[in-house]
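Hi team, as promised in this morning's meeting, here are the two structures we talked about. I've kept the exact order from the run log so nobody has to guess. The first one is mostly here for context; it's the second one we should focus on when we meet again. Sequence first, then the predicted C-alpha cells.
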Amino acid sequence: MGAENPSKEWRAVHIGFEGDGLKIGGVDIWKQDWRRVKMNPLRLPHPAYPQQTHSYEVYDAGGETQIVRFAASELSNGVWGFYVPAQN
C-alpha cells in the first residue's frame, strides 16, 4: 500500500462504540484478538468528519479459516473508526 494517499486505498466501514457488535467480513471484531500489522500507522479522515484526520493502526483478526484486515482508531473516548482495504 502506498503512503502518498492511503485514503484512496482504504474505505470507511464503521464508526461506533467499543463492543458494539461490529462485524467485518463476518468476523465479530470485538470478540477477537487484534494482531497489529507491522507497518506505519495510516493518516485517514474521520469517517463522519472528513476534514479531521487521525492515525489508524492496521490489524488482522479472525481465526485460521477467516482472517480480516482493518485499520482502527479510537476517535474519542470509546468511539472507534474503522477502515478496510478498498478492494474488499
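And here is the second protein, the one for discussion:
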Amino acid sequence: MTPIKRALRTERFVHIGLLLMVVLALDTAYRVKPHHNRISPIMVYAIAFVCLNNIGLAGFFRSRFVKRSEDSLPSNPTDESALKRWRQGVLNSLIMAYGVVLFGFLLKFLGATWGIAGWFFLVGILLLLAWTPRLSATP
C-alpha cells in the first residue's frame, strides 16, 4: 500500500470514529436529562464566539495545509512533507469541527434547549461531512 493510500485510509478511520462519537454525544444528550437551569445568554454568545473562532482556525488549517498539499501531491506523490502537512491539516480541522459538537453537548448539559444546542450539533456535523478526507493523488 502506498503512503498516500495509507494516510487517506487512516484519516478516513479517524473521520468515521468522530462521526460515531457525534452519534454517541447526541444519544447521551438526548437520554440524560440535565438540571433545568436557565443558561445565561452571555454564556451562549461566548461559546458561539469560541466556536466561530474554532471554525475560522479550522478553515485556516484547511487552506494552509490541506489545499496546498492537495495541489502539490498530484505532481509529486512521493513528497512525504506534503503528505504530512495534508494529514496534519485534515486531522486538525476534523477535531475542531468535532469541538463544535462538544460545545453543543456542553450547552445542553448547562441547561440550554435543543433550539440552541442543536445548532452547534448541526454545524459540527455539517463541517465533519463537508470535510471528509479526500485526496485526488491516490495512484
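Starting points for discussion:
The longest helix spans residues 41-72.
The chain has one domain: 3-130.
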